[in-house]
What does this fold into?
Amino acid sequence: MKNRKKIQILKTIITTAIVLLSSTGLYYVYRMYQNIEIVDNYEAEKTRLSTINEQNVENIYEKDVSTADIIENVSKSVCGISKLSNAGGSILSMATETELGLGTGIIVSSNGYILSNSHVTGEKFSTCYVTIEDKDTYTGKVVWSDSELDLSLTKIKASNLVPASIGGSEKIRVGETVYAIGNPIGHQFRRTVTSGIISALNRTIKLQENDKDVYMSDLIQTDATINPGNSGGPLINIKGEVIGINSVKITSAEGIGFSIPIDVVKPVMESFLARGSFEEANLGLFVYDESISKYLNLKNRFSSGICIAQIVKGGPTDGKGLKEGDIVTKIDEKFLNTINDLRQYIYTKKPGDKVVLNINKGKYTKEIEVILGKK
It folds into this structure.
């Protein structure tokens, strides 16, 4: 009996202890949860998504506003160019492009240098007429022109103009968004803006001018609409920087236009802006690159470098042991793959400067030194 009572007492004590411990534990758990902020995961996720969506909408809106502002600013640097004067005060009249030879130009300095196509402005020393801001028309003198490149610089007597921001074309990529600005079909559609992407790079096209074949190489292809009158206008990136000068459209297809990379003409612009002049050096060679060789169906195949088509008699390279078909692979350690590679480098030189050419003659290579002449 005594043992049973002891067991019963022990059970009572154990039960009481368990109850006390359980109560204490629940109390502390209760206090602990009182200090925790309960969050509805579903509501939190909804709030987070809502915030992201609002931010995205805001970013898209800001992006659109920014793009509009950028294009508006660049448009201030776009002008109209004609080869004919117009008695109406502004060449951006209701006359047609055919009547006035209307095209587009880009203001590249505050003191009146205008970049355009040579087929818009005419050759060096010729006169054209430039309209700024739809009102003021200036007589312009073409101070530099390259018909093969189809680029020119014209000078007008003006000040406080708004120059365009000049970008770079070396690192542009297929798929980048671009905008073209120009004056198609005259006054009614002046400063038309079209958008698209860079469709391809290093394109070569064949044109017919004055009953002879002309090749333009290293072009930027875009599907941004380029119409007659857009010639000479800017192709810009999303930052509003000029990366190309619009030049050619394929009339037999939609969405295929071409621009000349801005980098090739930078040395010329920089020289005029710094010194008011540009002395063009001459290598005394006619060359073609691999893309042009495909048009010519030549047996001489090469994957890099540029091929010598003709050596100018009496020129800087005459008598240097060169012959037609030789491949120029480098100039002063700069690798050459397109005509514009060579042209851009020569533009940085002056007549009288020395350059070193690396020549591949098939069975062997050689280096020759050339003193550049004056074009």
The chain has three domains: 74-155, 166-275, 281-374. Residues 74-155 form a domain with the Thrombin, subunit H fold (CATH 2.40.10.10). The helical segments are 2-34, 41-75, 97-100, 118-121, 266-275, 290-296, 339-347. Confidence is low (pLDDT under 50) at residues 19-62, 92-99.
